[in-house]
Amino acid sequence: MDLTSFEAQVPALADALRARGWRLATAESCTGGLIAAACTAMAGSSDWFERGFVTYSNQAKTELLSVDAGLIVRHGAVSREVACAMAEGALAHSPAELSVAVTGIAGPGGAVPGKPVGTVWLAIGRRGAAAQAELLQLSGDRAAIRAQTVSAALQRLQQAAAA
Questions:
Q1: What whole-number distance in Å separates Cα of residue 87 and Cα of residue 84?
Q2: Which of the residues 25, 97, 107, 160 could staple to 90 if both were Cys, CB 3.0 to 4.6 A apart?
Q3: Cis peptide bond N-terminal to 11, omega within 30
């Protein structure tokens, strides 16, 4: 995946974070670190990018982000509840003020009843507030789903930082 496709989105996010003096943490499953990579591709991102967690496995979600294993059992790794717990975990395990978490099914396999390929939960966390999540139903192949997820995450982060 070519990170230059996100070049136009990152400066607005950087400006919004810098204006507030905020730092960002990412918690990524289906994107495997692509959101963090898009952010850190920009020179000077150390001013506002704090850290990224790639928690692809359920074990990583529980160990690195303190996501309750029972939550994963009850709702599945691809769920509103887990996405919110990931976003809150990224804040709990960093000094960042803003976080994003993504968990989804990029395909081509992995679909389960009620959760087809392209199902992605994206959550935004702000220190001192409950994380908010939204369901994305994306289409295309694995690369397209992951790229759309990165783009949506950058957009929602910029909106949250500017609000």
A1: 5
A2: 25
A3: no
Angle between helices 10-20 and 142-162 (to 10 degrees): 30
Query: For residues 144 and 150, what is the distance between their CA atoms, to the nearest angstrom?
Result: 10
Q: What is the pLDDT of residues 63-96, one digit of tens each?
A: 999 999 999 999 999 999 999 999 999 999 999 9
Residues 6+ apart with CB under 8 A from 110: 117
Residue 44 gets which letter from DSSP? T
> Which H or E element spans position 146?
helix 142-162
Q: What angle do CA 68, 73, 77 make, to 5 degrees?
A: 80
| Cα angle, residue 104 at apex, residues 111 and 80 outer, rounded to 5° | 110
Q: Contact, 105 vs 116, CB < 8 A?
A: yes
Is 122 strand, coil or helix? strand
Q: What angle do CA 116, 118, 120 make, to 5 degrees?
A: 100
CB 161 within 8 A of CB 17: yes
